[in-house]
Amino acid sequence: MIIDIFPHLISERAADFMGQRVGYYGDKQSYWPRNNADPEIRLRHMDDYGVDMQALNQSTPFLMGLNAEDAAELCRISNDDNYKLCKTYPDRFVNVCMISLFDMDGAMKELDRSINELDCRGVTLSSNQNGKGLDSPEFFPFYEKVVENDLPILIHPVNWESYPLVDMFEGWRMMHIFGWPFDSTQAVWRLIFGGVFDRFPTMKIVMHHLGGMLPFYARRVEVNFEKFLSDKLPKHISEYWPHLYGDTAVDGTVAAYPCGYAFFGPDRMVFATDYPFGLGDGHGFIRDNLEGVKAMDIPDEDMNKILGENAKRLLKID
User: Fold this and answer.
1) Model-level pTM?
2) Are 9 and 56 in contact (CB under 8 A)?
3) Angle at 121 between CA 242 and CA 299, to 5 degrees
4) pLDDT tens figures, 189-219
5) Measuring CA to CA, which residue among 5, 8, 4, 2 is closest to residue 275?
């Protein structure tokens, strides 16, 4: 069974809502194919490559530039439309709800609604919340309810305050290509050093783009921890790695998959595509990520875990 844990659905209502507001994407709707909302096209792309299920979620960069009220409304629209497609095709889609933490009262209400009304199997959060780190104590009640309901948190990277050399538009998209994986890394760094994992020991985090910088720099992290930071945590930093899962959405970069496999192992690596972004109305990312994963020389049992069994367990798919 192949389960894509991190594809995106941009519904017509969500696209229209964003088109009326000045945000990160604004009216630049060439960023994604509008026909991604057509279930027949989406299912055909899945069937072409043997993808059995998608865990539908929204892309959190859509929240950038929005005020708290508009961000909350976009979450509601997206979560409702995702759920509608899940109800129509229950054997092909499950719902992962996007939630903005810009306003915590609204976030708690949307989380409660998602759990009780929308068959939520996980929550998607931005790697920072308008510049606030994910270790901010005001977010702890949210995490408490997430953990209480045994939901994985899928972290999607977004922009951060930078300098002109890595500006999104003046720096030839360096923020998008390299800055976003960095922000995924800082998000988890703060969850570790901010004591969030110690406070919530059963918390599970899915890192988009195969763990950002952590797999490649894991030993560099551990050496610096042992030399400079060992008094900052109650246990060795490597003991926090089991909280982390890495998805395979690295656009087909063949060398990245074995690196992620070495860090996460067969039980914490999950297949993902970032559909419908990419070439060819999005199906290019399905093809390239699937080919990259299958190119790894690993046991069949491990391959099956990565392609579907791990996501099946995380999302409680029967």
Assistant:
1) 0.97
2) yes
3) 50
4) 999 999 999 999 999 999 999 999 999 999 9
5) 8
Structural domain containing residue 135: 3-314
Domain count for the chain: 1
Neighbour count for residue 125 (Cβ, 10 Å): 25
Distance of CA 16 to the CA centre of its chain: 23
CB within 8 Å of 47: residues ≥ 6 apart: none
How big is the CA angle at 276 (ends 180 and 41), to the nearest 5 degrees?
Answer: 175
Q: What is the mean pLDDT of residues 272-296?
A: 95
Distance set, CA 233 to CA 182, 199, 245 (Å): 22, 12, 21
Q: Domain containing 234 — which CATH number? A: 3.20.20.140
95 in Cβ contact with 79 (< 8 Å)? yes
Is the separation of the CB atoms in 263 and 304 below 8 Å?
Answer: no
Report the distance separating Cα 1 and Cα 14, nearest Å: 30
Summarised one tens digit per residue, pLDDT across range 160-187 is 988 889 988 889 989 999 999 999 999 9
Residues whose CB is less than 8 angstroms from the CB of residue 202 and which lie 6 or more positions away in sequence, other chains included:
147, 150
**CA torsion sign, 51 to 88 to 274 to 172?**
positive
pLDDT in tens, 99-150: 999 999 999 999 999 999 999 999 999 999 999 999 999 999 999 999 999 9
298 beta partners: none
Sheet of strand 153-156, all strands in order from the earlier edge strand to the far edge: 3-4, 53-56, 93-98, 120-126, 153-156, 205-207, 244-247, 269-270
Q: List phi, psi (to 5°) of 203.
A: -65, 140
Residues 6+ apart with CB under 8 A from 279: 285
* Helix, coil or strand: residue 114: helix
